[in-house]
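User: Predict the full complex structure for these chains.
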Amino acid sequence: MRFNGYGSIVAGTLLGEGDEPYTADAVSGGTYDDEIRFEPETLVALRAVADINDEMTATVQITGKGAEGSDAFIEWAYVSYQLTPETVVNAGRFRLPLFYYSDFLDAAYAYHWVRPPADTYGIPVSTLTGVNLVNTHYFNNVGLTTQIWYGAETDETEDVVADITKSQGINLMVEYEWMRLRGVYHTLKLGIDPKPLLVNTPGGLIQVDPEASNTDITYKAAAFMIDYESILWRSEYTEVDNGEKEKSGYVSLGYQFGTLTPHYTYSQYEAVEEKQTHTIGLRWDFKPAAALKVEYSNFHYETEGGYTVVGPVEADEYRSELLSVALDFIF
Amino acid sequence: MIRELKTLLLLSVMLSSFSPLAMAEGYSVIVHPSNSAEFDKGTVERIFLSKEKTFTNGQPAVPIEIQQPSTHRDYFQETIIRKTDSQVRSYWAMLMFSGKGTPPKEVASEAEVLELISKNPNTLGYIPSDMVTANVKVVLSF
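Assistant: Here is the predicted structure of the two-chain assembly.
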């Protein structure tokens, strides 16, 4: 049995008196207001791996989040079978590998921000129960990682039960020297119970036809990443189609000066609501396996009006500012 | 006399421009003597990052790492992996916690690296060049 894990102690506050509350973690519902709060994003995760035999391992990953109160939840629980040295099949519950950071979103030590741009990553469902297959192959010095998955998941949010079925997808990642290019295509069926006329779902805002029990949702996304010497570039573009189209994307640029990595990110979201976010931050690798991060985000939100699960929204526009400090570690 | 001196000088210049394998750089990448695979810097880097899982001869590749803190490992990461320590740790955090890979087995000393590699044809590691024995094969120096 091998144990390891990761954690983040995060403190954040909105800078303006009476700024609109800001949800930083769509899965746990962790939300910041104009007081200094630690609960929204503080978490610890423990991973245990046991060998079953030469080709098989069992993995369990348990996460405790401040925003979830005292409930710990099982994010990963799966059995892996090493088909060949390059191919592994996992069966059980795993994180959905939707966007570049999706399947290690909570392991913040692995990236430069306190959190990846919420305009892209604000999806309330993060896990899937089913099977997935990962193959990595190198053609000389060009790497190709292929991942395919199939599964289903039931998720209860805000008095609504979302039943996700036929969740299937493929992602391909090509790696060459200092760049990575990733593309993903993912489809699912979503059933809502009870059936309100409009619901806020993993696929965004959906008009539910009381006659129909299922909505088809399609995700398309591309990522382009560069790590060239001390330069760091991250960019993603995503499209969600649930009858309406939602688009989001970001570009992020950083530079590593020894243990210090300053960075800037611009991200955008377009649907019923429009959001733009500017983020500047600094990562300091002050000790092995631990990093201290400071981040300032400026959000602009605008909508001409529409409907959400809690009812109609008036046309609105506001700006808010969030300051966060995080200590991220792995063990 | 002058001519002899000149010849000697010329000889010494020629000799110094050669660098025989035995006098290689400070570290050697080693494998089991029976390992017939081909290696270059890129191959070693990819095997240690678990990107390539087999040697060029098709056999499974098992890299052996040295535990941190280690100046030897720092030098290896700097020259072969070309990543800072926090970048290496971030890389493994990404793979481990997304269920896609595990970092190489770590041992406490170079003597253990030598011991393991002399016994197992699938292993690969690095040690200071002056520790190399006849029980292992050097495939790269850095």
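The mean pLDDT of chain A is 90.
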